[in-house]
Design goal:
It is built from 15 helices and no strands. With 328 residues, the protein is mainly α. It is globular and about 85 Å long. It starts with a helix and ends in a 5-residue tail after the last helix.
Length: 328
């Protein structure tokens, strides 16, 4: 063997040994991290934190989570779990702080897409819609990925639905319809179809609205029967609404609450549209919304003045709606 060949052989051998040592260190560190995580989940402090949270003793629970994170800073899942607890308690700033403190997403039970989705939801909770849109749109730019068990792209479906609801709340009903349609192409969700029906009604497409209303009711009926087969379904022959059985009424409570709110909104809009002044305001909403978007980012005096004028008009429209709220 020549000197050059010997030199190459020893260098290769050293590289292989180095890789072996590094791999052993990484595996050893990973095992240590997993053992520490198991230890944390079985600790009294962690169990007490979860118990206090279930008892709505939030400050005590959050304090214990923070103590656990201080003791075990490498357990990234603790930061994620605390962030989720903050979000459930509508403490969105603290949730965002937890999400930003995560250093190693790869060690989490959820991936980067879920972190981005959570940030979008938190900013929406803070009514910081531009920031919320940024994260939702970031999700939409990622490649579509179907979840193994769900069979569809959960994060993109949620992002389209959230953007659609924001557009709806800002009176941009055409954009809301478009976004809900994209969400429904990914996966059928009764709530999305129900709100899209309302948006169709508000832009005057009543036949499409009726079709969406009926489909959403049929979907929720099938879901309830599938999830609660032991309950006897008592339904009205005319409208297909469940009634009578107390257990069914309790099961359907979240859906009924949402449906009742949408029905109230529809009655309010009927009254607004019936009013001559309300009709003028209603017909101007789409053009105002479009003009406001075009003025965004322009800073000359005329543009700023017009932007403020449109914002004020939209606020007056919102207040005018409230005058007709017969449920107040």
């Amino acid at each position: 063997m020549t000197d050059r060949a010997k030199h190459i052989f020893f260098i290769t051998l050293i590289a292989i040994l180095g890789l072996f040592v590094v791999r052993k260190l990484i595996v050893g560190k990973e095992k240590k991290w997993q053992a520490e995580g198991f230890q944390v989940r079985n600790s009294e402090l962690y169990k007490k934190a979860k118990r206090f949270y279930s008892e709505t003793k939030y400050d005590e629970a959050f304090g214990m989570y923070k103590a656990l994170i201080k003791l075990h800073p490498e357990q990234e899942w603790l930061k994620l779990e605390l962030g989720d607890k903050y979000g459930d308690a509508s403490r969105f700033r603290e949730e965002l702080s937890c999400l930003r403190s995560i250093n190693d997403i790869e060690r989490l039970p959820v991936g980067q897409r879920q972190i981005i989705l959570r940030k979008g939801i938190a900013y929406r909770g803070l009514e910081m819609n531009d920031s919320s849109r940024y994260y939702y749109n970031q999700l939409l730019q990622m490649p579509t990925r179907h979840h193994k068990h769900l069979g569809y792209d959960l994060e993109k479906n949620a992002a389209y639905g959230a953007l659609a609801r924001m557009a709806y709340d800002e009176y941009d009903y055409s954009s809301s319809i478009e976004l809900y349609t994209k969400a429904l192409e990914l996966h059928e969700i009764p709530r999305y179809r129900y709100i899209r029906a309302h948006a169709y009604y508000l832009v005057g497409e009543e036949s499409k609205a009726i079709d969406d209303y009926n489909q959403s009711i049929e979907m929720i009926r099938k879901m309830v029967i599938h999830d609660h087969p032991v309950l006897s379904a008592v339904m009205c022959d005319t409208c297909g609404t469940f009634f009578g059985k107390p257990e069914y009424m309790e099961v359907l409570k979240p859906w009924r609450t949402h449906a009742e709110q949408m029905a109230r909104d529809k009655q309010i809009m009927d009254k607004v549209r019936a009013s001559s002044r309300g009709s003028i305001l209603f017909d101007s909403i789409s053009s105002w919304r479009k003009e406001k978007e075009e003025l965004r980012g322009k800073y000359d005096d005329a543009a700023v003045e017009r932007y403020l004028e449109i914002t004020d008009s939209l606020e007056k429209y919102k207040n005018y709606q409230m005058r007709f709220n017969i449920y107040d």
